[in-house]
Design goal:
The complex is a heterodimer of chains A (87) and B (125).
Chain A (H helix, E strand, L loop, with lengths): L2 H22 L3 H26 L3 H25 L6
Helix pairs in contact in A: 1-2, 2-3
Chain B lengths: L1 H25 L3 H27 L3 H30 L12 H23 L1
Classes of the chains: A mainly alpha (87), B mainly alpha (125).
Protein backbone atom coordinates (compact mmCIF):
# COMPACT_ATOMS: atom_id res chain seq x y z
CA UNK A 1 0.00 0.00 0.00
CA UNK A 2 1.47 3.29 -1.03
CA UNK A 3 1.91 6.21 1.35
CA UNK A 4 -0.73 8.33 -0.37
CA UNK A 5 -3.41 5.63 -0.17
CA UNK A 6 -2.58 4.94 3.51
CA UNK A 7 -2.71 8.67 4.32
CA UNK A 8 -6.04 9.18 2.58
CA UNK A 9 -7.52 6.10 4.29
CA UNK A 10 -6.45 7.25 7.78
CA UNK A 11 -7.73 10.78 7.17
CA UNK A 12 -11.09 9.50 5.90
CA UNK A 13 -11.52 7.27 8.98
CA UNK A 14 -10.66 10.24 11.24
CA UNK A 15 -13.13 12.46 9.39
CA UNK A 16 -15.91 9.92 9.86
CA UNK A 17 -15.12 9.83 13.59
CA UNK A 18 -15.51 13.64 13.63
CA UNK A 19 -18.80 13.38 11.72
CA UNK A 20 -20.04 10.85 14.28
CA UNK A 21 -19.31 13.33 17.07
CA UNK A 22 -20.98 16.16 15.12
CA UNK A 23 -24.10 14.05 14.71
CA UNK A 24 -24.27 12.43 18.16
CA UNK A 25 -22.70 15.13 20.35
CA UNK A 26 -24.92 15.60 23.39
CA UNK A 27 -24.24 19.34 23.72
CA UNK A 28 -23.41 22.24 21.42
CA UNK A 29 -19.72 22.55 22.49
CA UNK A 30 -19.15 18.91 21.46
CA UNK A 31 -20.28 19.73 17.95
CA UNK A 32 -18.17 22.90 17.84
CA UNK A 33 -15.06 20.98 18.95
CA UNK A 34 -15.70 18.37 16.25
CA UNK A 35 -16.15 21.05 13.57
CA UNK A 36 -12.85 22.68 14.62
CA UNK A 37 -11.03 19.34 14.47
CA UNK A 38 -12.59 18.55 11.09
CA UNK A 39 -11.21 21.83 9.73
CA UNK A 40 -7.72 20.94 10.91
CA UNK A 41 -8.04 17.48 9.34
CA UNK A 42 -9.01 19.04 6.00
CA UNK A 43 -5.77 21.05 6.10
CA UNK A 44 -3.98 17.69 6.39
CA UNK A 45 -6.03 16.40 3.45
CA UNK A 46 -4.87 19.34 1.34
CA UNK A 47 -1.23 18.68 2.29
CA UNK A 48 -1.51 15.02 1.26
CA UNK A 49 -3.18 15.97 -2.03
CA UNK A 50 -0.42 18.51 -2.72
CA UNK A 51 2.12 15.73 -2.15
CA UNK A 52 0.20 13.35 -4.43
CA UNK A 53 -0.28 15.71 -7.36
CA UNK A 54 2.62 18.15 -6.97
CA UNK A 55 0.20 21.04 -7.59
CA UNK A 56 0.87 24.17 -5.58
CA UNK A 57 -2.65 25.52 -5.16
CA UNK A 58 -3.59 22.80 -2.68
CA UNK A 59 -1.29 24.43 -0.12
CA UNK A 60 -2.93 27.80 -0.78
CA UNK A 61 -6.30 26.14 -0.12
CA UNK A 62 -4.88 24.68 3.12
CA UNK A 63 -3.72 28.09 4.42
CA UNK A 64 -7.04 29.76 3.54
CA UNK A 65 -8.96 26.90 5.16
CA UNK A 66 -6.93 27.20 8.37
CA UNK A 67 -7.65 30.95 8.53
CA UNK A 68 -11.40 30.58 7.96
CA UNK A 69 -11.67 27.65 10.36
CA UNK A 70 -9.98 29.69 13.11
CA UNK A 71 -12.30 32.67 12.60
CA UNK A 72 -15.36 30.40 12.55
CA UNK A 73 -14.27 28.70 15.77
CA UNK A 74 -13.86 32.05 17.51
CA UNK A 75 -17.30 33.18 16.32
CA UNK A 76 -18.95 29.98 17.56
CA UNK A 77 -17.19 30.26 20.93
CA UNK A 78 -18.48 33.82 21.25
CA UNK A 79 -21.96 32.52 20.49
CA UNK A 80 -21.57 29.92 23.25
CA UNK A 81 -20.72 32.61 25.79
CA UNK A 82 -23.96 34.35 24.84
CA UNK A 83 -22.35 37.66 23.94
CA UNK A 84 -22.72 39.74 20.81
CA UNK A 85 -19.87 40.29 18.38
CA UNK A 86 -19.07 43.93 19.13
CA UNK A 87 -17.94 43.39 22.72
CA UNK B 1 17.16 10.20 2.54
CA UNK B 2 14.91 13.27 2.56
CA UNK B 3 12.11 11.18 1.12
CA UNK B 4 12.41 8.59 3.90
CA UNK B 5 12.43 11.20 6.67
CA UNK B 6 9.46 13.03 5.15
CA UNK B 7 7.49 9.82 4.75
CA UNK B 8 8.08 8.86 8.38
CA UNK B 9 7.04 12.34 9.53
CA UNK B 10 3.80 12.04 7.53
CA UNK B 11 3.05 8.55 8.89
CA UNK B 12 3.64 9.63 12.52
CA UNK B 13 1.46 12.69 11.96
CA UNK B 14 -1.31 10.50 10.56
CA UNK B 15 -1.16 8.24 13.61
CA UNK B 16 -1.42 11.31 15.88
CA UNK B 17 -4.51 12.43 13.90
CA UNK B 18 -6.07 8.99 14.31
CA UNK B 19 -5.39 8.92 18.08
CA UNK B 20 -6.87 12.40 18.48
CA UNK B 21 -10.11 11.51 16.73
CA UNK B 22 -10.37 8.24 18.69
CA UNK B 23 -10.13 10.40 21.82
CA UNK B 24 -12.84 12.67 20.37
CA UNK B 25 -15.18 9.69 20.08
CA UNK B 26 -14.32 7.76 23.24
CA UNK B 27 -13.73 10.26 26.06
CA UNK B 28 -16.58 11.12 28.47
CA UNK B 29 -17.13 14.91 28.46
CA UNK B 30 -16.49 18.06 26.44
CA UNK B 31 -13.30 19.14 28.20
CA UNK B 32 -11.60 15.74 27.93
CA UNK B 33 -12.55 15.48 24.27
CA UNK B 34 -11.32 19.03 23.67
CA UNK B 35 -7.87 18.49 25.14
CA UNK B 36 -7.29 15.08 23.51
CA UNK B 37 -8.50 16.08 20.07
CA UNK B 38 -6.95 19.54 19.91
CA UNK B 39 -3.47 18.61 21.05
CA UNK B 40 -3.15 15.43 19.00
CA UNK B 41 -4.68 16.77 15.78
CA UNK B 42 -2.71 20.02 15.91
CA UNK B 43 0.59 18.19 16.28
CA UNK B 44 -0.40 15.58 13.67
CA UNK B 45 -1.35 18.10 11.01
CA UNK B 46 1.79 20.15 11.69
CA UNK B 47 3.88 17.00 11.23
CA UNK B 48 2.11 16.24 7.93
CA UNK B 49 2.89 19.76 6.68
CA UNK B 50 6.53 19.55 7.84
CA UNK B 51 6.81 16.15 6.16
CA UNK B 52 5.50 17.71 2.95
CA UNK B 53 8.20 20.41 3.30
CA UNK B 54 10.95 17.82 3.86
CA UNK B 55 9.83 15.63 0.98
CA UNK B 56 9.26 18.40 -1.53
CA UNK B 57 12.20 20.66 -0.74
CA UNK B 58 12.28 24.33 0.14
CA UNK B 59 10.62 26.06 -2.80
CA UNK B 60 7.36 28.06 -2.92
CA UNK B 61 5.24 25.03 -2.00
CA UNK B 62 7.47 24.05 0.90
CA UNK B 63 7.60 27.58 2.27
CA UNK B 64 3.80 27.80 2.19
CA UNK B 65 3.56 24.44 3.97
CA UNK B 66 5.87 25.74 6.72
CA UNK B 67 3.75 28.90 6.96
CA UNK B 68 0.60 26.81 7.36
CA UNK B 69 2.22 24.67 10.07
CA UNK B 70 3.27 27.73 12.08
CA UNK B 71 -0.18 29.26 11.65
CA UNK B 72 -1.99 26.13 12.89
CA UNK B 73 0.43 25.83 15.80
CA UNK B 74 -0.37 29.42 16.82
CA UNK B 75 -4.14 29.53 16.29
CA UNK B 76 -5.37 26.09 17.38
CA UNK B 77 -4.71 26.58 21.14
CA UNK B 78 -6.45 29.97 20.99
CA UNK B 79 -9.55 28.41 19.46
CA UNK B 80 -9.54 25.53 21.96
CA UNK B 81 -9.24 27.92 24.89
CA UNK B 82 -12.14 30.00 23.56
CA UNK B 83 -14.32 26.89 23.18
CA UNK B 84 -13.50 25.63 26.70
CA UNK B 85 -14.26 29.02 28.23
CA UNK B 86 -17.50 29.30 26.28
CA UNK B 87 -18.56 25.78 27.28
CA UNK B 88 -17.88 26.51 30.95
CA UNK B 89 -19.79 29.79 30.79
CA UNK B 90 -22.66 28.00 29.01
CA UNK B 91 -22.71 25.78 32.15
CA UNK B 92 -21.87 22.48 30.48
CA UNK B 93 -21.35 20.03 33.33
CA UNK B 94 -18.08 18.21 33.97
CA UNK B 95 -17.93 14.42 33.97
CA UNK B 96 -18.93 13.04 37.39
CA UNK B 97 -15.47 11.44 37.79
CA UNK B 98 -13.69 14.79 37.58
CA UNK B 99 -11.78 15.67 40.75
CA UNK B 100 -11.48 19.47 40.59
CA UNK B 101 -12.85 22.50 38.77
CA UNK B 102 -10.37 25.33 39.29
CA UNK B 103 -12.08 27.72 36.88
CA UNK B 104 -15.38 27.42 38.80
CA UNK B 105 -13.54 28.20 42.07
CA UNK B 106 -11.92 31.21 40.41
CA UNK B 107 -15.24 32.47 39.11
CA UNK B 108 -16.88 32.05 42.53
CA UNK B 109 -14.00 33.87 44.19
CA UNK B 110 -14.26 36.64 41.61
CA UNK B 111 -18.03 36.95 42.13
CA UNK B 112 -17.56 37.05 45.94
CA UNK B 113 -14.88 39.70 45.57
CA UNK B 114 -17.21 41.78 43.43
CA UNK B 115 -20.05 41.47 45.95
CA UNK B 116 -17.66 42.40 48.78
CA UNK B 117 -16.50 45.43 46.83
CA UNK B 118 -20.11 46.41 46.19
CA UNK B 119 -20.95 46.00 49.89
CA UNK B 120 -17.98 48.19 50.83
CA UNK B 121 -18.95 50.92 48.41
CA UNK B 122 -22.58 50.85 49.54
CA UNK B 123 -21.43 50.79 53.18
CA UNK B 124 -19.28 53.89 52.76
CA UNK B 125 -22.15 55.61 51.02
Amino acid sequence: MSLIAFALAVLIVSSFACLYRIGMGPSAPDRIVAIDILGTLIVGFCAVLALATGKEFYVNVAIAWALLSFIGTLALAKYLEGRSFDE
Amino acid sequence: MNETIGSWLIVIGLLFDLMGTIGLVRLPDVYNRLQAATKCVTLGTCMILIGLLVRHGFDALGAKALLGAVFILLTSPVGAHAIARGAHRASVRLWEGSVTDAYLEDRQKEAMGESDAQAETTGTR
